[in-house]
Design brief:
Blueprint: H1 3-16, E1 22-28, E2 34-41, E3 44-50, H2 60-69, E4 73-78, E5 84-85, E6 91-94, H3 95-105
Parallel strand pairs: 3-4, 4-6
Antiparallel strand pairs: 1-2, 2-3, 5-6
Helix pairs in contact: 1-3
């Protein structure tokens, strides 16, 4: 696992500690559907993928997993600084911005 991904996971998990009633999961199926981090907070489902690249590419497995669980929010945390939305309504966001959103949601 790359260093940015490790730092990303640790930072997100630390911020979860500040969010009451938040549960964190990894979602993976035998068919290859996968989401790095699934959060449930106040009955809202968040799908979060962590990528080390400044030009992240979502895998088919992420899209399949989102079809399975139907999250309310879909994010890719990446090492860039800009925030933008993909054609599939996935928000691509930096780690500091993601942490801010998580803390504000609590």
């Amino acid at each position: 696992m790359r260093q940015f991904q490790t730092v990303g996971y640790l930072a997100i998990f630390c911020s979860i500690g500040e969010l009451p009633h938040t549960q964190a999961y990894l979602y993976r199926t035998a068919a290859g559907a996968e989401i790095d981090l699934v959060l449930i907070n106040n009955r809202i489902l968040w799908a979060i993928e962590v990528e080390h690249s400044t030009t992240p590419k979502l895998t088919k497995g992420f899209h399949l997993a989102c079809q399975d669980i139907k999250p309310d929010h879909k994010f890719v945390v990446y090492s860039g600084k800009e925030t933008f939305k993909t054609k599939d309504s996935v928000i691509v966001i930096s780690l500091p911005q993601m942490l801010e959103i998580l803390i504000q949601s609590g």
